[in-house]
Amino acid sequence: MDNIIVGLKQSKKAVEANEVKLAYIAKDADYEITAPVLRLCNKKDITINREYNMKDLAKLCKIEVPTAIAVVTI
Predict the structure, then answer these.
(1) pTM above 0.85, yes or no
(2) What is the rounded average pLDDT of the residues 52-57?
(3) What is the phi/psi pair of residue 7, to 5°?
(4) Which domains can be identified in the chain, with CATH numbers?
């Protein structure tokens, strides 16, 4: 996937900067960790995809480490 940012801090910054059109939040990620980005995405009406688990989301992003959050930028 092109234009993808992986990880909590970088994803949150991109959402705050209005640079995101789609967010992936792993369905098995800890809610305490993902809640701030989830709230921001809801506030900014960004589509959230929760169909992947952390391992599959990592595969989608072509990385080897399981990830909780990834975003697709504009």
Answers:
(1) yes
(2) 98
(3) 110, 155
(4) 4-73 (3.30.1330.30)
